[in-house]
Amino acid sequence: MKKDKSDNLKITAVLYVLMFVYAVFTTMTGTQLIILVREFGIELAQGGIFAVIINTGCIVGILLSALFIDRFDSRHLVLMSYFLLGLLLTAIKFSQSYYSFLLLLLWIGVSMKFLDASLNASISRLNTVNSGFYMNLLHCSFGIGAFAGPLFTTVLMENGTAWRDTYFYLGIICIVTGLAYFAVQKGYAAEAEVRTGNNGKGGRVICLRVFCLMGILLFYCGHQMGINSWLPAYMQKTLHLAPAAASLSVSAFWIGLIFSRLISAVLTRYMSEERILKAGLLAGTVSLAVGIMSRMPVVTVIGVSGAGLLSGACIPLVLTIGYGWFPASLGKISTLLFLCIAGGAVIFPWLMGISISSFGLFGAMLLDVLCLTAAAAAALTLLPGRKVKE
Q1: Is residue 114 within 8 Å of residue 64, measured between CB atoms?
Q2: What's the N-to-C CA distance of the chain in angstroms?
Q3: CB 246 within 8 A of CB 150
Q4: I need a labelling partner for 82 at 20 to 30 A (CA). Which of 4, 22, 298, 385 fits?
Q5: How high is the pLDDT of residue 196?
Q6: For the packed helices 49-66 and 98-126, what is the interaxial angle rounded to 10 degrees?
Q7: What DSSP character marks residue 338?
C-alpha cells in the first residue's frame, strides 16, 4: 500500500525523533571526560582517545553504508543500525575494563554513522521538494539531542546515577523509539527511484566541487567535535568553572547550533545554500576567535554560542548541496562527505589532545578556532556561487 504525503511527513517526524535520541550520545563522553580519565587512570592529554575510537568506528560504518544505501530500502538500514546502537549502549553498563569500554565505543561509532547516513538518505528520498528545509530540520533534531546530552548526563549523575547507567538508560530509550519507528513505517511502499542527474559532464569541475565540500566538512567537524571533547575540560581547568557550569557551556554551543539550523531551514526558501554557508562560516569564525582569545568565562561562552548560531547549519547545508549536485548517487556522495565528517572528528580532537602537552588547553582551543577558519576559507575561495532562488 502506497503512502501519501501525510504519511511521508509522519515517517519524517519519527525519523527526527530517532536523530534526536542518537544525538544525545554524541556529547555524553565529552561531558564525562574528567570522570572517564579518573575512572581509567589515564592522563588528561590522553582523553581524546574516546573521540578517536568512536570516530574510527564511524569511518568503518560510513564505508559499510556505502555498500547498502544505493541498493536497499533505507528504512531497513535505519532499523538495523538503530537497534544495534541501542543494544551497544545498554552493554556499557556491564563493561568493566578500559579496553572493553573502548571496544564498545568502537562498535557504537560503526552503528551511529551507518545510522546517520541512512537517516539522511531517507529524508532526502522522502522529501524531494524543499529538501534543504527538511534536511536542516533533521540536523536541528540532532542539535537538540546534542544539547540535551550534557543535561541528561549531568542531571542523572547529580542524582546519584553511576556513569555507566546513563548509557544503559539511553540504550533503553533507543530500543523503545526504534519500535515506534518500526510501527509507523510498517506497510510503507519501497522508496521511489531517485531522479537522475547530470553527473557525467564537467568531470574536473565536479571533482573540484566535491573536494571543496569534503574540505569544508573535514575542518568544520574538527571544530565541532573539538568543542564537544575539550571545551568542558578547558572551562573547568583553565577558566575554573564548576563541572556543571562547564558542561553547560557545551549546551550553550548547541543552543546556538539548533537555532542556526532552524533559521537556515527558513532561509533556504529565499536564498541559495551556498550563500548561507559562506556568510555563516565567516561570521562564526569571528565569533569563536573573539570568545576564545578573551580568556574570560562569560565572553568565551558568548563567543562559542555565537559560533554555533552563525555556522551551526554547515553540515545540513553541505549535504543538501552535495545531494542536489548528485541526486542519482546518494550512496557515493554520502560516503565521501560522511568520511570527512568522521575524519575531521578523529584527526583534530586527537591533535588538540597532543597540543595540550606543549600549549595547554588554551592551545587546544586555538586549534579549534583554526579548524573553523579553514572551513570558512574553503567555502569562500572554492565553493561556487549560485543565484538566489526565485
Answers
A1: yes
A2: 36
A3: no
A4: 4
A5: 43
A6: 40
A7: H
Q: Tell me: the pLDDT tens digits for 160-214?
A: 899 999 999 999 999 999 999 998 887 555 554 444 444 444 455 557 778 889 9
What the block records as the C-alpha cell of 66 is 556505502
pLDDT at 337 over 80: yes
Distances (CA, A) of 148 to 21, 155, 345, 389: 9, 10, 20, 34
Short-list 191, 192, 203, 213, CA closest to 323 = 213
The set of residues, in sequence order, having a beta carbon less than 8 Å from that of 31 and lying 6+ positions away, is 149, 150, 153, 154, 232, 247, 250
The residue whose grid cell reads 549536485 is 325
11-66 confidence digits (pLDDT tens): 888 999 999 999 999 888 878 888 888 888 888 777 778 878 887 888 888 888 87
Q: With the C-alpha atoms ordered 184, 189, 132, 248, is the resulting torsion angle positive or negative?
A: positive
Nearest Cα residue to 368 out of 382, 343, 350: 350
Q: Which long-range contacts (CB under 8 A, 24 or more apart) does 292-300 make?
A: 292/362, 292/365, 292/366, 292/368, 292/369, 295/238, 295/239, 295/362, 296/239, 297/235, 297/239, 297/241, 300/235, 300/239, 300/249
List the grid coordinates of 90: 545498554
Among the listed residues 170, 124, 140, the one whose alpha carbon sits nearest the alpha carbon of residue 28: 170
Q: Is the Cα torsion angle 248, 338, 25, 18 positive or negative in sign?
A: positive
Q: Which pLDDT belongs to residue 198?
A: 47
Domain 5-188+199-382, CATH number (from 1.20.1250.20, 3.30.70.1790, 3.40.50.620, 2.40.10.480) = 1.20.1250.20
Alpha-carbon span 97 to 103, nearest angstrom: 10
8 Å CB contact between 51 and 143: no
Say if residues 319 and 220 touch (Cβ distance below 8 Å).
no
Q: Cell for 47?
A: 582523553
- The identity of residue 150, as a single letter, is P
